[in-house]
Amino acid sequence: MIRYWLPAKRACKPVLSALAGGLLLAAPARAQQPALPRDTSFTTYSAFVKARKQHPDISIARPPVPATIRSRVNVPYTEASSRPLLLDVFYPKARRHRPAPAVLLVHGGGWRSGHRSQHHAMAQQLAARGFVAVTAEYRLSPEAPYPAAVQDLKTALRWLRAHARPYGLDTTRVAIWGFSAGGQLAALAGTTNADPRYETGTTYRSRSSQVQAIVDVDGILAFTHPESGEGDDRKGLSAATQWLGGSREASPGLWEQASALSHIGPGTPPMLFINSGVARMHAGRDDVRRQLTALGIYSEEHTFPEAPHPFPLFNPWFAPTLEYTVQFLQRVFGRP
């Protein structure tokens, strides 16, 4: 099975702040602040090089930017760890008769790598289909361990509602979409609606961080599960151990708490699962779906058995991933 993050014993590279064409580009550090240590092992291009060995016909998904959308990038949404956290907004140009549903997209990278711009293409295409799509950064494990990433994403959701008017956003129709570690985070953020453990700071606290739909793209639902491959620290600290701040054996309660499976209940929103053929990347999914069915909550599952883990970044899987996402959100929200 393929992992796309560095072992802990490798040195982290200096902070990088932009990703273009699948390559991370170095940016100058902020004045009077040291560069943040950051693992840059997971980029679109590095994942492509690895996946192409088994799938020589794939290509990086770079659809043309639709002429029908607008964008605002590098927008600060809060301050954390003495620095701004940024997001990018893509939204329809045309004025609409009613506000548009919103989607917050969360990147993957083992909770310690990756960049929000890896999902710009998906966000742009969603905007062309009538959604307000936002890609947000969050603090990675070299900077801040769990639950900081979840708290950051909850703050980004509150920012969305606080800025609904400029983007024509419907605050009653908000979804969260995530890939890999981002899928795990999306599922956890979405299943912990109104949980005070994941609300922090004073930024837009009068606004809600609740979501009304979850799209989990190859993100695990349970860390301590027979299907999970997380927590193997025999050759160095695993990505999950680094993020959670302790091993599975030493902190079992924390590992359970960070699992979306532990939070399924009557208030859980509808969920869509889009998966690769890498079985461990959907650990706990079937248990979650059984619980949702018992609660009368809608869920959907689509699997590409032949696909590698980073499939939503590549053709031929990008387009069907987009279609499954749009169809699910239209079912839950109605047409934008």
UniProtKB/TrEMBL annotation:
Residues 1-31 form the signal peptide. The keyword Hydrolase applies. One of its GO terms (molecular function) is hydrolase activity. The keyword Transmembrane does not apply. Keywords: Hydrolase, Signal. It comes from the Bacteria. Residues 87-275 form the BD-FAE-like domain. SUPFAM superfamilies: alpha/beta-Hydrolases. This is Alpha/beta hydrolase. It comes from Hymenobacter rigui.
